[in-house]
Write a structure and sequence with these properties.
Elements lengths: L1 H11 L3 E5 L8 H11 L3 H19 L5 E4 L1 H5 L2 H17 L3 E8 L3 H11 L2 E4 L2 E4 L5 E4 L5 H14 L2 E7 L6 H4 L2 E2 L2 E2 H13 L8 E7 L4 H10 L3 E5 L23 E5 L1 H4 L15 H17 L3
Parallel strand pairs: 1-2, 1-12, 2-3, 3-6, 6-7, 7-10, 10-11, 11-12
Antiparallel strand pairs: 4-5, 8-9
The structure holds the ligand O=c1ccn([C@@H]2O[C@H](COP(=O)(O)O)[C@@H](O)[C@H]2O)c(=O)[nH]1.
Catalytic activity: orotidine 5'-phosphate + H(+) = UMP + CO2
GO molecular function, one term: orotidine-5'-phosphate decarboxylase activity
Pfam families: OMPdecase (PF00215)
Amino acid sequence: MINKLVSEIKKKNAPIVVGLDPMLNYVPKHIQEKAFAQHGETLEGAAEAIWQFNKAIVDATYDLIPAVKPQIAMYEQFGIPGLVSYKKTIDYCKEKGLVVIGDIKRGDIGSTSAAYAVGHLGKVQVGSKSYAGFDEDFATVNPYLGSDGVKPFIDVCKEEKKGIFVLVKTSNPSSGEFQDKEVEGRPLYELVGEMVSKWGEDCMGDDYSYVGCVVGATYPEMGKVLRKLMPKTYILVPGYGAQGGTAKDLKPYFNEDGLGAIVNSSRGIIAAYKQDAYSKFGEENFADASREAVINMKNDINSIF
Ligand SMILES: O=c1ccn([C@@H]2O[C@H](COP(=O)(O)O)[C@@H](O)[C@H]2O)c(=O)[nH]1
């Protein structure tokens, strides 16, 4: 799957990923009203509304982008109906040829991680049959429990030819509370980066490992250090746009070949119609606003090369 991700990035000339993080208040009134007319103001109604919202955005942007990153929390808040919309979104994006990065941030003791890995990336055995549960192409993994919490994901990736992005340095303001602490004279995120690089050594695609990492766009100096430390590791870069990360900060996240990183924007794309810059589209044409926001993001990121 890392080879598909890289080849789609090259084909579309777009090292970007659209984050499908649908809050109900981003969903235009006309979509909410239709969903509530069918299902009432219920969890089912909300889940239908976010699914229709996602579908319209995917239809308007899929030809421009290599990948999407649905954030599972946004679906889980609507309980089981929300998770059904998460799954519908994954399946639809795959039908459209997109690589799907499930932002699930899982990681636990080994046996529990194994179940997460099977549920999201692998297949679960039921008697003589096996079933893919959510079936994302990549998942994000929290490495805080150490190797035995991460290895089950890698094992499933090997079997299924999928991939993971392991949190190394996150984009949020307080990420330094733990991640920047010095351990043996070096910041913890560097040690985690080295581990990720090591885990990825025997997980190589053509040019990059399918064990990738997450480094926030909001910490460019650290991105530069980590890029050098882990040259074969693909970096998923959240924090562009709504969190303040800018294109000019992002060059050091890429290798000389212009590859090695993929930049996420969620609110900046899916809620573009709410921004002044895209107000000409109006709420009815929210998906066209998202398309223009994708084009602008792509040009912005490509301007650094
Ligand atoms: O370090 C991290 C890891 C993950 N995220 C996730 O990415 C998106 C960002 O959304 P924006 O609207 O573009 O800010 C969201 O799903 C986060 O959970 C992150 O921001 N930082």
